């Protein structure tokens, strides 16, 4: 079948406030869709991948008319669902015979509710797409029994919805084909936000799936607290492929917890050191999974930055989030990471259930104490499928449309704060952290290339807006 995989068109204003978009706008390769595309290609189907980050709906329509898809699949997170719905409806009027499906966090979190919002949708994928999408497309092509394929919600001919139930997860990640990077229109267009990378070209990789923890704001495709790992040799082989084929100079690992297996990371680092690859890499980790030997080994192997989800400087609020970490563990991990000459990225969250404005100020003080190289201050997002969303009345209330369900717009408001207070805390935090003369001097002194200079310029613009235009995080335009 001719399969079109699509990220819906979006604009920076869909995600960020205008005054802050320049310093936060990120274009990452759509790794999830690339995995599905690779699996479909392996199954013998013709696949086209379109990333709406770079195209408006008119362009997408013209491309679809040229391709004449029989199967149309979109990926969307919840803030992008409205855009996905619009493109489904537009394409349904042009290709009434095509089967239209959606997947990703929206389908998993909202499920049958999506079918109430648009008649253009035939299928919603609730399993791992690279496992179940090829099975569904194969069945559609041979007019087989689609209801026997787990991991789907199906709109039947009479309009009745059929949930085919959960599907077993992919246990051996090494057996999956590499993401179909060859289907990207322009590999070079993917440039992340300043300060989140060092070299181009850059690509994303996933070395594991799953997480041991169950933070209340995060949703998981299954209820099991475990991680499925790729072998170190599998990672090395893919990295070699990326260097040879795409001249990649940096890898961004998007695992929930890259360091979940200490021995695996050590083995991976040893292989990287032996290979002497001309690239650097960046990963996410939990503060309770690292120590000095591991961090020094990661540095030797080319790691340049580690992101730790700090979230709060108040132990009560960490406990509410079910982070299962302590302030002392955070201090220790940040200190050890700096000692290993690695950069540290520490995101924080405001608007935690039960959090007060004064506790938000304490988190700002904690961020200043940690003095990470990079920091971000988010609002808590009520992602469907998370404990926060499913039990929202226990914690607070949701304001705004799906488009606001992101880390910027404060769509969740706890009973102990107002939406305005959350946004005030974000503005104050950015000003206090990034306007420090010591921080500015350090960043200028450590600038080494044009990407560092771009970071300084865009950061200066955002800081100017925060200093001289209060309310930057409350409205666009």
From TrEMBL:
<keyword id="KW-0408">Iron</keyword>
<feature type="domain" description="Radical SAM core">
    <location>
        <begin position="197"/>
        <end position="431"/>
    </location>
</feature>
<dbReference type="InterPro" id="IPR058240">
    <property type="entry name" value="rSAM_sf"/>
</dbReference>
<keyword id="KW-0411">Iron-sulfur</keyword>
<dbReference type="Pfam" id="PF04055">
    <property type="entry name" value="Radical_SAM"/>
</dbReference>
<dbReference type="InterPro" id="IPR006158">
    <property type="entry name" value="Cobalamin-bd"/>
</dbReference>
<keyword id="KW-0949">S-adenosyl-L-methionine</keyword>
<dbReference type="InterPro" id="IPR023404">
    <property type="entry name" value="rSAM_horseshoe"/>
</dbReference>
<dbReference type="InterPro" id="IPR034466">
    <property type="entry name" value="Methyltransferase_Class_B"/>
</dbReference>
<protein>
    <submittedName>
        <fullName>B12-binding domain-containing radical SAM protein</fullName>
    </submittedName>
</protein>
<dbReference type="InterPro" id="IPR006638">
    <property type="entry name" value="Elp3/MiaA/NifB-like_rSAM"/>
</dbReference>
<dbReference type="InterPro" id="IPR007197">
    <property type="entry name" value="rSAM"/>
</dbReference>
<dbReference type="InterPro" id="IPR051198">
    <property type="entry name" value="BchE-like"/>
</dbReference>
<dbReference type="Pfam" id="PF02310">
    <property type="entry name" value="B12-binding"/>
</dbReference>
<keyword id="KW-0479">Metal-binding</keyword>
<keyword id="KW-0489">Methyltransferase</keyword>
<feature type="domain" description="B12-binding">
    <location>
        <begin position="11"/>
        <end position="147"/>
    </location>
</feature>
<keyword id="KW-0808">Transferase</keyword>
């Amino acid at each position: 079948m001719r399969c079109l995989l699509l990220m819906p068109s979006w604009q920076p204003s869909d995600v960020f406030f205008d005054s802050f978009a320049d310093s936060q706008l990120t274009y990452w390769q759509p790794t999830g869709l690339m995995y599905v595309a690779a699996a479909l290609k392996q199954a013998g189907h013709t696949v086209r991948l379109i990333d709406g980050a770079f195209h408006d709906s008119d362009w997408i329509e013209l491309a679809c008319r040229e391709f004449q898809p029989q199967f149309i699949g979109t990926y969307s997170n919840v803030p992008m669902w409205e855009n996905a719905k619009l493109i489904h409806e537009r394409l349904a009027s042009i290709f009434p015979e095509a089967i239209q499906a959606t997947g990703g966090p929206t389908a998993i979190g909202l499920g049958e509710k999506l079918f109430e919002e648009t008649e253009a949708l035939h299928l919603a994928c609730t399993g791992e797409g690279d496992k179940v999408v090829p099975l569904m497309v194969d069945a559609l092509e041979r007019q087989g029994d689609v209801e026997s394929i787990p991991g789907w919600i199906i709109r039947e001919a009479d309009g009745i919805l059929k949930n085919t139930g959960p599907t077993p997860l992919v246990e051996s990640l090494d057996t999956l084909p590499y993401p179909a990077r060859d289907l990207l229109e322009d590999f070079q267009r993917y440039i992340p936000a300043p300060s989140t990378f060092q070299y181009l070209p850059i690509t994303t990789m996933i070395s594991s799936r799953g997480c041991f923890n169950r933070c209340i704001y995060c949703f998981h495709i299954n209820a099991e607290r475990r991680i499925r790992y790729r072998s170190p040799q599998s990672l090395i082989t893919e990295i070699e492929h990326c260097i040879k084929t795409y001249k990649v100079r940096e890898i961004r690992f998007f695992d929930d917890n890259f360091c979940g297996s200490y021995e695996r990371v050590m083995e991976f680092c040893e292989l990287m050191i032996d290979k002497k690859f001309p690239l650097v890499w960046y990963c996410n980790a939990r503060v309770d999974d690292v120590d000095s030997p591991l961090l020094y080994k990661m540095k030797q192997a080319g790691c340049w930055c580690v992101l730790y989800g700090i979230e709060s400087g108040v132990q009560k609020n960490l406990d509410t989030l079910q982070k299962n970490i302590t302030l002392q563990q955070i201090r220790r991990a940040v200190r050890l990471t700096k000692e290993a000459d690695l950069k540290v990225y520490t995101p924080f969250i405001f608007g935690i259930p039960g959090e007060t404005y004064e506790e938000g100020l304490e988190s700002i003080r904690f961020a200043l104490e940690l003095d990470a190289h990079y920091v971000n201050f988010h609002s808590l997002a009520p992602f469907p499928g998370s404990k926060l969303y499913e039990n929202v009345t226990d914690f607070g209330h949701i304001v705004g449309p799906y488009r606001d369900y992101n880390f910027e717009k404060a769509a969740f408001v706890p009973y102990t704060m107002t939406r305005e207070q959350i946004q005030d805390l974000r503005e104050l935090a950015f000003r206090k952290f990034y306007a420090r003369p010591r921080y500015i001097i350090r960043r200028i002194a450590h600038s080494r290339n044009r990407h560092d200079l771009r970071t300084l310029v865009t950061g200066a613009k955002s800081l100017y807006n925060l200093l001289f235009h209060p309310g930057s995080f409350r409205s666009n335009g």
